[in-house]
Structure formats: structure tokens, C-alpha cells
């Protein structure tokens, strides 16, 4: 039972990291695209 609880607790940081990585990657692509086109990001 302890191993299951440990795995459950440790999976949340991995999920959060994956979501944050996806958001940051998309934002970085948008910044690069706007710089290439000469537009401000805001």
C-alpha cells in the first residue's frame, strides 16, 4: 500500500512538469514567430 501511495504522490510533479513544459514550449514558439515577423509579443 505504501508503494502505491508513494507512486501516486510522485506522479503529480511529473504531470505538472509536463503541462508547464508544454505551455512554455508553445510560448517560446510564439515569441520566435513574432520576432521573425517583426511584431511585438504584446
TrEMBL record:
Q: Where are the transmembrane segments?
A: 6-28
Task: Alphabetically list the UniProt keywords.
Answer: Membrane, Transmembrane, Transmembrane helix
Q: Which NCBIfam families match?
A: trnsprt_adja_43
Q: What is this protein called?
A: Uncharacterized protein
